[in-house]
Amino acid sequence: MNFVKKNCPGLLLCLAIAAPAWLLGKALPVIGGPVFAILIGMVVTLFLKSKAPLEAGIAWTSKKILQAAVVLLGFGMNLTEILAKGRQSLPIILSTIATSLIIAFLLYKALKLQTNSAILVGVGSSICGGSAIAATAPVIRASDEEVAQSISVIFLFNVLAALLFPALGAALGLSSEGFGLFAGTAVNDTSSVTAAASAWDGMHGSNTLEAATIVKMTRTLTIIPITLILALWRGKKEKDSSGSAFSLKKSFPFFVLFFVLASVITTVFHLPAGVTGPLKELSKFLIITAMAAIGLNTNIVRLIRTGMKPIFTGFCCWVGISVVSLLMQHVLGVW
After folding, report:
1. Using DSSP, how many helices (H) and how many strands (E) does the chain show?
2. What rounded mean pLDDT belongs to the chain?
3. Quick check: 149 and 307 in contact, CB under 8 A?
4. Which end of the chain is more exposed for a tag (fewer CB within 10 A), N or C?
């Protein structure tokens, strides 16, 4: 009862924001529910006279609900199906991920970016946008403002990619197979991949949507090694700063283990779409709920004031990924 009394007010406020944000995301998938939730949360927090009764529930939602959403995301991963159809895109996927992470690291050094901001923008750009940020943020203990900032950066280039890439692919003479690979490897978020591929199909009367989605899902699997490596890095960093012994148990992101377990269950038991579909939708809604909490904990003025360096980093990662994706297709003869 004490837990309910402590957390319920903040959780209910997050749910009240998440419901309209989810509907707006359905209506405008290129923007997406998480972005609407962050924006609404940032506006609502400006008008709150006192956040004290809400703080515990908001903090719990931004951490625990976010981790639960990542676990449920695993039920959308049939590993056999994804690896069978997506393995031909692996060289391109690995090249683009490496490119984004290297660019983010170089700009982190050159621009003196905050460490967590550089990691979140690099990972969000290279893997799967908001889902990758959601999985990575608890591992590196990113603040809510760092998460909101990186989500906003990813959103900006998602929209640009969805609008520009179909025309760019046509101008470059990409085949439908080539555009499916391009959209799946160079667009950050699943909703924007879907938008870009659907626009291409409308222009050319082809069916690239399924191929682009499979490539995107294959990218999503790299959340697992990336989060584990970051957890070990974070644990070592804390050990070096405190002088205490390294603890794998404390550093290990167990919610990622449950994400893997959910994927394995889906694969082994061949869970039908009637089961996995609602779980995937619940995962999306929980991410939106957590983003509402993050928006409530974010100072919009400070976010705008400090946003140029992350935006420039996101732009460089986006351009680098796009160029490398096209170059690798040309080298592999997929174009």
Report:
1. 18, 0
2. 91
3. yes
4. N
Cα first-last separation, the chain: 60
Summarize pLDDT for 41-65 with one digit per residue, the tens: 999 999 998 889 999 999 999 999 9
Residue appearing with tokens 């404390």: 250
Question: Which secondary-structure segment (H or E) carries 31?
Answer: none
| Tokens read off for 274 | 């009637």
E strand spans, 109-253:
none
Alpha-carbon torsion 154, 156, 157, 159, what sign? positive
CA dist 156 → 147, 189, 192 (Å): 14, 11, 11
Residue 242 pLDDT exceeds 80: no
Distance CA 311, CA 329 (A): 27
- What is the rounded (10 degree) CA torsion for 294, 124, 83, 230? -80
Q: Which residue has the tokens 């895109």?
A: 89
List alpha helices for 28-143, DSSP H: 33-47, 55-60, 66-73, 79-86, 90-111, 115-126, 130-140
**Which DSSP string corresponds to 163-183?**
HHHHHHHHHHT--HHHHHHHH
pTM for the complete prediction?
Answer: 0.89
pLDDT at 192 exceeding the cut of 90: no
